[in-house]
Design a protein that fits this description.
mainly alpha
């Protein structure tokens, strides 16, 4: 019994590692054209010939958010008091590092701000799209997920609302004849959402749904190690040998609900298989994995502002191969170092402070699950 309880409380470090790898890959994706722009011979910059799955990593982020939110908050469903706490934790998680990173582009692009665009930039609301940090477009989708997931916690109406949101999204993007229905219950709300808040019914929601399904399976069922291993291997094989080639190895997104649903379920299958093995004690990671998870978000949000700062402050020219690779190494290493410093000296301390200031207010809503709260992703 003691061994089982220890396994239940284990933090899910496999999610932390996956999130860091996805964030690091996106950094490399954005550095490729940046370095080519400073090369005497852009075609001679070898990493330019490597296709990195940047879009696939974004799909992974959205699926991870669904998995973590369900796994961390499944006991909060039906509890109104848990909703403001859930939203407040998301604010503590997202805004501090984002606002810090936003200082760099705002310094250079201040003249382009209007009151409306400034409010949209600082609040990251899901109703607008103008960005000074290009990578922040995904955060607007995350906020749409946060808003909807909080509403799903409402007693009585939360789960029907969840089902309705899923149907609404699939109805918009489907190529399935059986779903090609046109009723006022779908057409009118979908038209409103597309016109005023399309992020709430965008195709990226499907990845979130797949992650939610995997998170639900994680919380509701417990399988054996062989079942988890078989699931992880099968889902990874489907991604590597069929789905990623269809997306040109993650260079572009899918385009229809059936394929994107298959990708989201495969991503969820990998997460479920690995976290299941980890919960059973068959996968063990040190605390370094938790640290990588904490580093991933500051790295993701700060790397493009740092490239803007380097370009304007250092006055880069065009370089031959040796000098270009040296600059690439310095930029990548400096980005990792600055992201680590932000994590240790700013992001984590600010999050702890904000949570400590409101701990007494939200304490009645805290209901940790039997497996502990997974670390990584948006939750």
């Amino acid at each position: 019994m003691a061994v089982q309880q220890a396994a239940d409380k284990a933090r899910l470090y496999s999610l932390e590692i996956g999130r860091f790898l996805a964030a690091f890959t996106i950094v490399l994706v954005h550095m490729q054209p940046y370095m080519q722009g400073h090369a005497v011979n852009p075609a001679g910059f070898a990493p330019a010939f490597i296709i990195l799955p940047g879009h696939f990593c974004v799909q992974y982020f959205f699926a991870l958010s669904g998995f973590v939110m369900v796994a961390a908050h499944y006991r909060d469903f039906g509890r109104i008091a848990a909703i403001p706490r859930f939203w407040w934790l998301r604010v503590c998680r997202i805004y501090p590092a984002y606002w810090l990173a936003l200082c760099i582009p705002v310094y250079y692009l201040y003249g382009a701000l209007t009151p409306g665009s400034a409010a949209s930039l600082f609040l990251l609301d899901p109703w607008h799209s103008k960005e000074f940090i290009p990578a922040a477009w995904t955060l607007r989708y995350e906020f749409a997920f946060y808003i909807m997931f909080g509403l799903f916690m409402l007693p009585y109406v939360g789960k029907p609302l969840m089902a309705y949101w899923m149907v609404l999204t699939f109805w918009r993007w489907n190529n399935i004849p059986a779903l090609a229905i046109h009723t006022k219950l779908l057409l009118f709300p979908n038209g409103l959402a597309v016109t005023y808040a399309y992020k709430f019914v965008d195709i990226y929601n499907i990845y979130f749904f797949g992650g939610m399904a995997a998170g639900y399976a994680f919380t509701r069922w417990r399988w054996g190690a062989r079942a988890y291993a078989a699931l992880a291997v099968a889902a990874a094989a489907a991604l590597l040998f069929y789905m990623l080639p269809q997306e040109n190895w993650g260079e572009h997104y899918g385009g229809n609900s059936e394929f994107d649903l298959a990708v989201s379920l495969a991503l969820g299958g990998v997460m479920l298989g690995l976290t299941g093995l980890e919960r059973l004690g068959h996968l063990r990671f040190g605390r370094w994995a938790a640290w990588l998870g904490m580093l991933s978000y500051p790295l993701y949000i700060i790397h493009m502002p740092l490239m803007l700062l380097a370009d304007n402050a250092l006055h880069w020219g065009h370089y031959g191969t040796a000098a270009l690779y040296l600059h690439f190494a310095l930029l990548l290493g400096g980005t990792l170092l600055i992201a680590a410093l932000i994590t240790v000296l700013f992001d984590q301390p600010v999050q702890r402070l904000l949570r400590r200031l409101t701990r007494r207010i939200w304490r009645p809503a805290a209901q940790p699950g039997p497996h502990g709260r997974p670390v990584g992703g948006a939750a």
